[in-house]
């Protein structure tokens, strides 16, 4: 039969007085390319299919050439880029699956459902591979915490993440929460999930075997989420944003839980030839991607698709993003067993088509009338790709963020203000303060395998029946990215891997989520290009593969674009959980030391937000060879049992890192810091490749010898003990407030822990208006 000429319903163009392809987000050029792929003009249903599959979200049409430059192979990698999630072998027949995804635009429109379905979607990516999800991490970015919009978004997103994860029974163990003015109109909701599988259960998202059945199971298809992620994530927000609310998907975590259990049973019993979840672009994406990966085609019988609404048009069925649905490829002799499993778990199930050998996605309607026929490759691997122009800004913006002081002071924030007061201010900053207000709304212990949540650094989840554990973290450095997108990406990879390494775990791989503005703007595309280059350089230097990830573009509004935000996720393997190193100070009289050294530069630091940014100040650079050596040293020290604690020096600098070690351990420290340049740089600068460690006095000489052999600077700072944090400043650069009063050195930090704790615990609730 020939393709039906008439559209299944009155064309949108008749209503909007706009050519249909433009109304669907396709350009005139893309319409011409589609005609070339088909050898004829597409009909309305086919245009709808192309519009979602050629959206930025699904096709990666702007970023695909860049992503090919990333290192994507490495030891133990059994599934990588192009699959639903990366999978790395961890020995004993086991493997770990992990991936980072975004749900930014839907969350800006409807924060609760946007975040909830973001969690549901990433969980499906994990169990589609045959892995049982064991952890979720959320990396959240918002605008001014005092604004009504930000407070509404924070509340909705946090409830959405917790509402789905808590109900589905997967612990939310860590993540990030950050605030920056550029996220005011475009919040970022990036979610990472981790799963565990037997390697023999690894399942691919492919449709092999002509004659095999195409089975849809899970929730019925409705009109919710029509063009949701695929459309919302592929355009900037304009004045008509409220009209986008109906395109946000609606999640059902209880159905999601049933879907997990049914899918894992089907995989474990060997009943499936392939499995794909239905997310962005719905059925269209699932059938075209699985067919293209296998070099086959699929013929769909549209009337066989279970629906929860009457009168749905063909295009609505094909591009609906209704949640909690799975597409399975099943041999005919196994269909009865598949149906039995689905029905036992209370899930609707239907055979909706067959695998063919013609390479086409064919959509048939009533009485077999052919409604659409498109080569699967034209929708996926052969989708349009753009070679965008990238151009650095004419001049880098040196001014501080809106509302920040215009000029920094030369020592501490103000003459006469002691650094202890600065420390209290930083600990109360919503970017550094305790996340308990958020994490307390998540269940981080369901499943009983969580050893450490993310409140004190990387999360640790034990592997049942073994002495092993998985360590996982997310990191980003958008403040540095705003000044230098390359350095922002490099530092994010380095910090995320470092946060895993300080526990004693060996990083297995990197997953990324690239959050940027409109790629059609040359400056925005240059930022993206620089970030990808940074990820590639950092991963190669650290010997890690990028196992997969996500690109989220068009994160901008009429008020401007977000700062370049390279979000990184890392999973590591701890071979012996008994050697886990915590970040907290543990025992009085232990020696505190600093591995690594500070370098000049306060640009991009939290301190600069408080004290002001010098117009020409730059972020401190990073030496990747030194970073690699530091991480190797830390792993050697852990294997040797030398370290009592280890904590990365990150946001807020050395002083904040030391305060956290004291607060988390409930014990003080008496320390001395040598100042080579300025007190602010040593105390509050965020130079990379530094770690605070503590060791027993008897282990000090061994650590010093190990550090010398690695070429890593090691400075003894003092001893743990008491109920105060005291830091004396010495050295040629130790000038500050006290100097004005005739003293030869700067004021020291000397603060009771209870004062620091009050600032740290109250900072976030106070900033977002939730203080009791």
Shape: globular
CATH superfamily of the largest domain: PurM-like C-terminal domain
Tally of strands: 28
Unreliable spans are 1-16, 228-234, 237-246, 397-416, 738-745
CATH class of the largest domain: Alpha Beta
User: Mean pLDDT, as a whole number?
Assistant: 90
**Largest sheet, described in full?**
7 strands, mixed
- Percentage of residues in helical conformation: 25-40%
Number of helices: 26
Descriptive account of the structure:
The protein is an alpha+beta fold. It has 3 domains: 1-72 and 203-382, Phosphoribosyl-aminoimidazole Synthetase, Chain A, domain 2; 85-105 and 132-146 and 171-196 and 444-580, PurM-like, N-terminal domain (60s Ribosomal Protein L30, Chain: A), CATH 3.30.1330; 582-763, PurM-like C-terminal domain (Phosphoribosyl-aminoimidazole Synthetase, Chain A, domain 2, Alpha-Beta Complex). It is built from 26 helices and 28 strands. The protein has a 7-stranded mixed beta sheet with strand order 8-10-7-11-9-12-13. Strands 23-25-22-26-24-27-28 form a 7-stranded mixed beta sheet. Strand 17, helix 20 and strand 18 (546-552) form a beta-alpha-beta unit. The N and C termini lie far apart (69 Å). 59% of the residues are buried.
């Amino acid at each position: 039969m020939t393709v039906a000429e008439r559209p299944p319903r009155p064309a949108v163009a008749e209503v909007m007085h706009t050519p249909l392809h433009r109304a669907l987000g396709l350009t005139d050029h893309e319409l011409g390319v589609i005609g070339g792929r088909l050898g004829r003009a597409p009909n309305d249903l086919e245009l709808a299919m192309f519009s979602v599959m050629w959206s930025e979200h699904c096709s990666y049409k702007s970023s695909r050439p860049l992503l090919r430059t990333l290192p994507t192979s490495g030891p133990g990698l059994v599934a990588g880029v192009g699959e639903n999630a990366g999978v790395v072998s961890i020995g004993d027949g086991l493997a770990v699956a992990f991936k980072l995804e975004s749900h930014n635009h839907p969350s800006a429109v409807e924060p609760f459902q946007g975040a909830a379905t973001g969690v549901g979607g990433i969980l499906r990516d994990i169990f589609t591979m045959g892995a049982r999800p064991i952890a979720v991490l959320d990396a959240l970015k918002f605008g001014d915490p005092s604004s009504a919009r930000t407070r509404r978004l924070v509340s909705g997103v946090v409830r959405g993440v917790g509402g789905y994860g808590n109900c589905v029974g997967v612990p939310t163990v860590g993540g990030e929460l950050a605030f920056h003015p550029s996220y005011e109109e475009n919040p970022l909701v990036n979610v990472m999930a981790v799963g565990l599988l037997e390697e023999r259960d690894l399942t691919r998202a492919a449709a092999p075997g002509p004659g095999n059945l195409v089975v849809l199971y899970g929730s019925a298809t409705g009109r919710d989420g029509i063009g949701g992620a695929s459309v919302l994530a592929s355009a900037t927000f304009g004045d008509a944003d409220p009209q986008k609310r109906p395109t946000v998907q609606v999640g059902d975590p209880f159905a999601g839980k049933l879907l997990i259990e049914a899918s894992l049973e089907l995989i474990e019993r060997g009943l499936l030839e392939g499995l794909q979840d239905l997310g962005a672009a719905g059925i269209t994406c699932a059938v075209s991607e699985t067919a293209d990966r296998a070099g086959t085609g699929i013929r769909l019988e549209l009337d066989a698709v279970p629906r929860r609404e009457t009168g749905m048009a063909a295009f609505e069925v094909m591009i609906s993003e209704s949640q909690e649905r799975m597409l399975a490829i099943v041999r005919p002799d196994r269909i009865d067993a598949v149906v039995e499993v689905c029905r036992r778990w209370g899930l609707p199930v239907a055979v909706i088509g067959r695998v063919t050998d013609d390479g086409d996605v064919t959509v048939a309607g009533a009485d077999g009338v052919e409604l659409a026929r498109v080569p699967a490759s034209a929708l996926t691997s052969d989708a349009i790709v753009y070679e965008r122009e990238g151009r650095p800004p004419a001049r880098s913006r040196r001014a501080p963020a809106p509302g920040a002081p215009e000029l920094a002071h030369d020592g501490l924030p103000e003459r006469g203000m002691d650094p202890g007061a600065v420390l209290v201010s930083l600990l109360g900053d919503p970017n550094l303060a305790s996340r308990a207000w958020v994490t307390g709304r998540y269940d981080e212990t369901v499943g009983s395998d969580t050893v450490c949540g993310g409140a004190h650094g990387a999360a640790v989840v034990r592997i049942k029946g073994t002495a092993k554990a998985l360590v996982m973290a997310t990191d980003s450095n958008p403040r540095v990215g705003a000044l230098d997108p390359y350095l922002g990406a490099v530092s994010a990879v380095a910090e995320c891997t470092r946060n895993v390494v300080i526990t004693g775990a060996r990083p297995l791989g990197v997953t990324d989520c690239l959050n940027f503005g409109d790629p059609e703007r040359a400056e925005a595309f240059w930022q993206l290009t620089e970030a990808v280059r940074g990820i590639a350089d950092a991963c190669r230097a650290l010997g890690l593969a990028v196992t997969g990830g996500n690109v989220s573009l068009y994160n901008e509004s009429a008020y401007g674009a977000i700062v370049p935000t390279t979000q990184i996720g890392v999973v590591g393997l701890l071979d012996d959980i008994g050697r886990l190193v915590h970040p907290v100070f543990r025992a009085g009289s232990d020696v505190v030391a600093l591995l690594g050294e500070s370098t000049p530069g306060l640009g991009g630091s939290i301190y600069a937000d408080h004290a002001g940014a010098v117009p020409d100040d730059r972020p401190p650079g990073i030496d990747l060879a030194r970073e690699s050596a530091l991480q190797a040293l830390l792993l050697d020290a852990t294997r040797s049992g030398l370290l009592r604690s280890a904590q990365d020096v990150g946001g807020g600098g050395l002083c904040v890192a030391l305060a956290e070690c004291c607060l988390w351990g409930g014990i003080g420290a008496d320390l001395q810091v040598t100042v080579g340049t300025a007190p602010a740089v040593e105390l509050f600068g965020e130079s990379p490749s530094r770690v605070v460690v503590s060791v027993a006095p008897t282990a000090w000489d061994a650590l010093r010898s190990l550090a010398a052999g690695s070429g890593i600077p090691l400075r003894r700072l003092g001893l743990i003990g008491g109920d105060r944090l005291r830091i004396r400043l010495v050295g040629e650069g130790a000038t500050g407030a006290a100097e004005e009063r005739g003293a030869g050195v700067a004021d020291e930090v000397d603060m009771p822990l209870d004062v620091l704790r009050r600032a740290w615990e109250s900072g976030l609730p106070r900033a977002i208006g939730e203080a009791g």
